[in-house]
Amino acid sequence: MSPDELRSAMRALGYRTQNDLAGAIGVSRSAVSLWLEGKVGVPRPVAMLLRMLIAAQRRPF
Question: For residue 41, what are the CA distances in angstroms to 21, 37, 60?
C-alpha cells in the first residue's frame, strides 16, 4: 500500500489524523507517520485490514 493509498483509506474510513488511525488499529502515531512519509512500508496485514474495512462500508446491508 502506497502512502497515497493509505491517505485515501484514512479519508474513506473517516480517520482525520494519524493519531485517530493509530488508535483504531493499535499502533503508534509514529508508525503511521513513517508509513505516510514512505519511509517504512505499510505492513501487509494492516493494508489488508484497511482494504477490507473500505469494502465492508461499500456493501449494502
Answer: 16, 9, 32
